[in-house]
């Protein structure tokens, strides 16, 4: 007789090689947020990169739209265990936004409209691995999924892809963001199941 009561075994571990451990596949796009959905006017929207020395690089919505656009197709993995494969986006690579930004920083803290923050190593935003995305599946990114623009860092759990992103602050020291201060993992690699501190 087993020691685990029926109903407490959770979902079976995926045997699919394209899903990280502990994840299950969804066809819809679940909406999960820590607070109310900000409604940001495009006339007021801006994206700001600030360096550890206080230098700032700013783009209005119209300036942002004139930057080179990429159309990545990526898999998404949420810490709540769902994965959505082959999602199609359009946005600006962080490589483009960071081009010409002089910094000695090792870390970044993404800031969102509504107050949300999340921390990442700066190198995880470079090398064609991260975008500020403003279109999803051929349409403007809806507000419930982070529109008008969200950070997209698909190789990490989805909470690192900050919705309603408004800027990134570069720094020499790592500074935990919203979920990280609540016990989530500082890095969040889905293939290593880094869901919580200590994983």
TrEMBL record:
<protein>
    <submittedName>
        <fullName>Sulfite oxidase-like oxidoreductase</fullName>
    </submittedName>
</protein>
<feature type="domain" description="Oxidoreductase molybdopterin-binding">
    <location>
        <begin position="35"/>
        <end position="179"/>
    </location>
</feature>
<feature type="region of interest" description="Disordered">
    <location>
        <begin position="1"/>
        <end position="20"/>
    </location>
</feature>
<dbReference type="Pfam" id="PF00174">
    <property type="entry name" value="Oxidored_molyb"/>
</dbReference>
<dbReference type="InterPro" id="IPR036374">
    <property type="entry name" value="OxRdtase_Mopterin-bd_sf"/>
</dbReference>
<dbReference type="InterPro" id="IPR000572">
    <property type="entry name" value="OxRdtase_Mopterin-bd_dom"/>
</dbReference>
């Amino acid at each position: 007789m087993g020691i685990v009561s029926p109903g407490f075994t959770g979902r079976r571990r995926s045997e699919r090689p394209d899903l990280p451990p502990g994840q299950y596949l969804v066809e819809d796009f679940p909406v999960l947020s820590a607070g109310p959905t900000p409604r940001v006017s495009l006339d007021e929207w801006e994206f700001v990169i600030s360096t550890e020395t206080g230098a700032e690089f700013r783009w209005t919505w119209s300036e942002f739209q004139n930057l080179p656009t990429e159309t990545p197709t990526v898999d998404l993995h949420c810490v709540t265990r769902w994965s959505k494969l082959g999602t199609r986006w359009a946005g600006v690579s962080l490589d483009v936004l960071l081009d010409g930004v002089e910094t000695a920083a090792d870390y970044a803290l993404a800031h969102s409209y509504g107050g949300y923050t999340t921390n990442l190593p700066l190198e995880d935003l470079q090398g064609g691995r991260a975008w500020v995305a403003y279109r999803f599946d051929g349409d403007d990114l809806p507000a419930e999924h982070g529109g008008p623009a969200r950070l997209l860092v698909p190789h990490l759990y989805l909470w690192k892809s900050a919705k309603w992103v408004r800027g990134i602050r570069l720094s020499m020291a790592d500074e935990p963001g919203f979920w990280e201060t609540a016990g989530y993992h500082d890095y969040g690699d889905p293939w290593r199941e880094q869901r919580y501190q200590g994983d």
